[in-house]
Design goal:
Keywords: Methyltransferase, S-adenosyl-L-methionine, Transferase. With about 270 residues, this protein is an alpha/beta fold. It has a seven-stranded mixed beta sheet with strand order 6-2-1-7-8-10-9. It has a three-stranded antiparallel beta sheet with strand order 3-5-4. The chain has ten helices and ten strands. It folds into two domains: about 5-65, no CATH class; about 75-265, Rossmann fold, CATH 3.40.50.150.
Length: about 270
């Protein structure tokens, strides 16, 4: 993208918002900036750059658009049905003493809490009282992590969850809002973590990084895949988003468990 004003906007995203723009594809930044341009009725990058200069509060709105996440519980049911099968094997295997999961790019907490609810249900079903479950949920955005810790959600985020499950694991605050119960909160810990700059979590049975790496350049993606490999125990699972695929060296580091659902298992590398 050689438009001078697009380059200036990109530069400001880096300097003013402290977002590492070089790690993202130009096409992604372009799509997100275009969303704000339409809303601000700016016909080109020059107009939008001038609008940003005159309206500094627009930078915050641009940041929210750049880091936007679609948030629902058990979004994409086919993936979660498959994950349920994986967790059922773990829960019913009496040699398994603990389940450790890393939810990378966890946003406002629907993924880790949703996994905790699913595992809790399976533990009850199979009378497995003594299994230790720890889900480490990480994100770069401090503000969104605070929201996740609070664990308050609105009713439309529960469209994939049956009402009896909602009633069991959430307290109804009012007509629209629910809050996750303490027994589920105890299973999840939230941490600020930079996927690119920091090392991986360790000793994980599963790493989920869904619809995050798609926004990074290919060389960064490859490094992240190998970080996830390092994070996992032998035979541990890596779960990606539906449009994300392994490439480079990582294709020899994992085998498909369910290729359609982008679920892979760690292989030992010689």
């Amino acid at each position: 993208m050689d438009d001078m004003y697009f380059k200036r906007i990109k530069r400001d995203i880096g300097t003013k918002l402290k977002i590492q723009v070089d790690q993202y594809k130009d096409t992604y930044i372009l799509r997100r900036v275009s969303v704000r341009m339409r809303l601000c009725k700016c016909k080109d990058f020059k107009e939008y750059y001038e609008y940003l200069t005159k309206n500094p509060s627009e930078y915050e709105k641009l940041e929210n658009t750049l880091t936007v996440n679609v948030t629902e519980f058990w979004r994409d049911r086919t993936v979660y049905n498959e994950l349920r099968n994986v967790f059922e094997k773990m829960v019913t295997d009496r040699t398994v003493r603990s389940i450790r999961i890393w939810s990378a790019g966890c946003s406002s907490g629907e993924e880790p809490y949703g996994l905790a609810v699913m595992i809790k249900e399976l533990m009850e079903k199979h009378n497995q009282k003594f299994l230790r479950v720890l889900i480490t949920a990480t994100d770069l955005d401090k503000e969104i992590l605070e929201r996740a810790k609070e664990g308050t959600y609105i009713s439309k985020q529960f469209k994939n969850m049956d009402q009896d499950v909602i009633d069991k694991y959430f307290d109804k605050l009012n007509d629209k809002e629910y809050q996750i119960k303490k027994e589920i909160k105890r299973m999840v810990q939230f941490k600020k973590h930079d996927l690119i700059k920091e090392g991986p979590m360790k000793d994980m049975n599963m790493v989920l990084c869904r619809n995050v790496i798609i926004y990074f350049e290919k060389d960064i993606q490859e490094k992240l895949f190998m970080k996830f490999h390092e994070a996992l125990n032998d035979g541990g699972y890596l779960v990606l988003g539906k449009t994300e695929m392994l490439h480079g060296d990582s294709r020899n580091a994992f085998k498909p468990s369910n290729h359609r659902e982008r679920i892979y298992q760690k292989l030992k590398i010689n």
